[in-house]
Structure formats: structure tokens, C-alpha cells
């Protein structure tokens, strides 16, 4: 190998155990969904004892899942994280031009988020270049019940799903004006579902949020428009902003494949 070859220069930094763990995950595909320890060892060119600890580590972290007495398949952690990433990248690509246009039309900041368990995860922002602007960084996580987008992200969940999600979550640990218990959260989600949008006010700022749906009608993301109360309180601004937000969400959802059921 030449001196300039990056693979040659980086060889000293390879972690063999990590490399073997990733190779084990790569063994699973549409033709090999379930492999036992002997099959894994054979495909890896080693013994069962040489890969045992790696397999157990992957299983403990949820990247592999035990099936039957001695079989394994890809675990929920790997699958959910992979699909969450792919879905979030796709929706960013679709939503980006629409949110930038919405920001230019309203002179207000716009954000895009997805749900990670009971948190709102911000994955894109279109920042309004004003002295008074709401600017929440990409990667920020906020409990869903504490913000407008979070309530919209929860709006497609059934009562049973909400109960399961919030079974071990305390809602009164957060210093917000949001729901303080599960019945109040269910009521807020019901109102969001019926209205189709949510308005929230906090820290001298106002936000309006609505949902983004995919081709199956599922809520896959949420968007908002947010700005200082001083701007949003001007006559007619709130109503015009809400209407532009809803139209923006309609366009993004349509590009994501959503087709509302025809009225009869």
C-alpha cells in the first residue's frame, strides 16, 4: 500500500472487537434473518467461544435479539434507530424548502421535529434573521408534553399507546405550564387531534405547531412557527401565520405521499 493510502495509515486505530461486532451484524440479511451461535461462528471463521462475549454484548444492548434456545436475529434497537434516521433524513429533504419559504413569508423561525419515545427531537430549523427570534438548535430534545410540536407528534397515538408510553414517566417534574398528569395530557392530545394545530406560549414567545403525515396517514413529524409575543400579538398575525403553517404542512405531507380521504 502507498504511504498516501488512508486505509494503511488508519490500520493502527482499528478496534478488533468493534470490527467483529459490526461484521456479525452484517451477516444478517433477507436470506439469513435468524442465525444460531454455531452458524455465526462458522461464518465469522472462528469458534463459538471467540464470539460469545461479542454476541452477548450486542444482545444486551438490543442490537441482537435471542430467538428460541440458541438463535439470534437483528434487535429492535438497531432496526428502530436505523429507520428513525432514514425517515428523519427523508423528511428533512422534503420539508427544507417549504420551511425556508414559510420563514421568508412570516419573518419567523420555523422548526421540524420527530418523536423519540416521549421526547420531541429537533432535526431542522429555518432561522429568522431578526434581533428577536426563537432559535432552538438542531438535536435539542424537549419532553413532548411541554411543547406544541410534541403534542402534535402524540396526536396519532391511541389512549392505550399513550398509557404504555407514559407508564413510568412523571409529567410534574418539569417546570412548565403543560399537563401535569396523564388524564390532562390525554385531554390536550384530544384537543390537538380535533383542532389540527396547537398554540403554546412560554418565555415571552408564541409557537404554533401542526403535524406532518406520511403516505399511510401516520404522523411522522411536526413543524412550527415561533416568534416573540410582541410580533405574534399584532392584529391578524396569529391567524395569518396559522393558515400559512397549515398550508405548509399540507404541501410537505403531500410530497411525503399523504392523500387525505375524500369527503363524502
UniProtKB/TrEMBL annotation:
Domain HTH iclR-type, first and last residues per copy: 15-76
UniProt entry tagged with the keyword Transcription regulation: yes
IclR-ED domain boundaries: 77-258
An example Gene Ontology biological process: negative regulation of DNA-templated transcription
Keywords on record: DNA-binding, Transcription, Transcription regulation
A Pfam short name: IclR_C
PROSITE patterns found in the cross-reference section: HTH_ICLR, ICLR_ED
Keyword set includes Transcription: yes
Alphabetized GO MF terms: DNA binding; DNA-binding transcription factor activity
Database matches in PANTHER family: HELIX-TURN-HELIX TRANSCRIPTIONAL REGULATOR, ICLR FAMILY (PTHR30136), HTH-TYPE TRANSCRIPTIONAL REGULATOR RV1719 (PTHR30136:SF35)
The name this protein goes by in its record: IclR family transcriptional regulator
Organism of this sequence: Pseudomonas poae
Lineage, top ranks: Bacteria, Pseudomonadati, Pseudomonadota, Gammaproteobacteria, Pseudomonadales
